[in-house]
Specification:
single chain, 60s Ribosomal Protein L30, Chain: A, fumarase, four-stranded mixed sheet, 15 helices, 23% strand
């Protein structure tokens, strides 16, 4: 009978969460690099280069690859012969203590994103607890743990459907993926759970994402089951959509498709689908009573030796002298390098500002002639100006956009992924612009931020309004002042290219 110490569990969870905050799984690095080498879309190739460079920088600097350091999800298999030595906590509490220590560790502070009272006050727990924990009791004398930190942008794109028994899972996936937009930061993985009940399907979809990327090994040897055949069919069909990296259009949208299934009722066909983003973070460890888990870091040689540069056609923009005429001259797909003062603001700050405008109150910051960045940065450590500070999903701000642009004189916005119809219409109406930064390249982006200070709503923590001073921060014009949207035109073009390749 194995006797596992409480402190070993806490330390192992702590180590694992720190580890995955800055180390991609090596299978992901290699799969993304292979996709980068195959990619023909300049915009998608550029985005993948930024993600790969960011990944290597995060590994070297031991800082988060993405500012959204996720909600912790844990799958625990408890051996029936395990006993817990000198335990004063329940297993949930041990895991959450490990989470608490990982997210508040002074050498690598991780962003606390978890809110209690989700239907009410939504107050931050400040230490990213509690985790979402799933248990199985199994034969044996070990404690087996799969642990992941799942970003909100990809989690929010989760889908569920109860199909008729004769309906096609492939057709549902292919029809659903385009409705998810790019907020899940492709290229990533798709996890599917088929069968069981509604909740079982979604848990299986999440658990499937803990598996390593092996789709090309599967293609090489050929499918040995109906599920493996379905994996290949979905993989090919989704990539033929042309959505591409960051939704900009390209050859690779998913790096792998994983499926778990379970017996179900004769009249049911539950299907859950959950994407993993470009900041895929998960690992596995097993405790057998001999001490805490030891995790082996990837070697630097596991990362490709590539660099990222803006290119000769990138246009430098002075944010401190920016005029409406300059904004209206920006072209869709153009690369800009932002310099000067950049304000930040996301969901909570926008809600506060809109409420103040509705009451006729002055805002705590003047947005006239400014650009706002949708970001909730990680707190800085050591000599950092700011921690990793990648963009958040822009569509969540769509409902505020018309009022903010119309009443404040804001000129442009920076975020990740596409804008929805109301956001695009507001941008066109007010002759503003939306600029896209690459999701999953937060540490790289933070290197462009030279000064940072909180200027409003400090009580909102990471959602406070900051004033950044940036140098050559790279962005792409995703929606121009005429309403041209590259998240529509790019995938449409590359879907046609892929179709033509198949015909020719």
């Amino acid at each position: 009978m194995a006797s596992i110490r409480q402190d070993d569990i806490i330390e192992s969870v702590f180590n694992a969460l720190q580890f995955i905050s800055y180390y991609h799984p090596t299978d992901f690095i290699h799969a993304l690099h292979d996709a980068y080498l195959r990619e023909e879309s300049p915009a998608a190739k550029d985005a993948m280069a930024q993600i790969l460079v960011n990944s290597r920088m995060s590994a070297m600097g031991h800082r988060p690859m993405c500012q959204d350091t996720g909600i912790v999800t844990v799958f625990v298999k408890v051996g029936m012969q395990v006993r817990f030595d000198d335990a004063t906590m329940g297993l949930d509490d041990m895991i959450n203590e490990g989470v608490r220590r990982a997210y508040t560790h002074p050498d690598n502070v991780l962003r606390a994103s978890i809110l209690r009272d989700p239907a009410g006050a939504r107050t931050n727990t400040r230490d990213n607890t509690p985790a979402v924990i799933h248990y199985q009791v199994v034969p044996g004398e070990t404690l087996s743990v799969d642990i992941a930190a799942k970003g909100g942008g990809s989690e929010n794109k989760s889908k569920f459907v109860m199909l008729n028994p004769s309906d096609s899972v492939l057709d549902w996936v292919v029809n659903t993926i385009p409705t998810m937009g790019a907020g899940w930061c492709p290229p990533g993985m798709l996890g599917l759970g088929i069968g069981g009940t509604a909740e079982k399907a979604l848990v299986m979809a999440k658990e499937s994402l803990m598996q390593p990327i092996d789709i090309y090994d599967l293609k090489a040897r050929g499918p040995a089951s109906a599920l493996e055949e379905l994996r290949l069919e979905i993989f090919e069909a989704v990539n033929q959509l042309g959505i591409g990296a960051q939704g900009l259009g390209g050859l690779t949208t998913v790096l792998d498709v994983k499926i778990l299934d379970y017996p179900t009722h004769a009249v049911s066909k539950a299907v859950g689908m959950i994407p993993n983003c470009a900041a895929t973070r998960h690992t596995h460890f097993t405790l057998d009573g001999t001490g805490p888990a030891v995790l082996t870091p990837p070697a630097l040689e596991d990362w490709p030796d590539i660099s990222w540069e803006a290119g000769p056609h990138a246009k430098r923009v002075n944010l401190d002298t920016l005029t409406p005429a300059e904004v209206q001259a920006w072209k869709p797909g153009e690369t800009l390098l932002l310099n000067g003062t950049l304000l930040t603001g996301r969901d909570a700050a926008h809600k506060r500002m809109v409420d103040m405008l509705d009451r006729g109150e002055p805002l705590p910051v003047d947005l006239k002639g400014k650009v706002i960045y949708y970001v909730g940065p990680v707190s800085p450590v050591r000599d950092e100006v700011v921690g990793p500070a990648g963009p958040t999903t822009a569509t969540r701000m769509d409902k505020f956009t018309d009022q903010i642009l119309g009443q404040t004189g804001l000129l442009a916005m920076v975020g990740k992924a596409e804008r929805g119809p109301s956001g695009v219409e507001a941008i066109k109406k007010h002759k503003a612009a939306y600029l896209m930064a690459v999701g999953g390249a937060a540490y790289l982006v933070s290197q462009a931020i030279k000064q940072s200070r909180v200027v409003a709503f400090p009580e909102l923590g990471m959602e406070a309004i900051h004033e950044f001073v940036v140098e050559d921060m790279p962005v792409t014009v995703a929606v121009d002042a005429q309403g041209t949207n590259v998240h529509k035109t790019g995938p449409q073009h590359w879907a046609q290219v892929i179709h033509a390749k198949q015909l020719g």
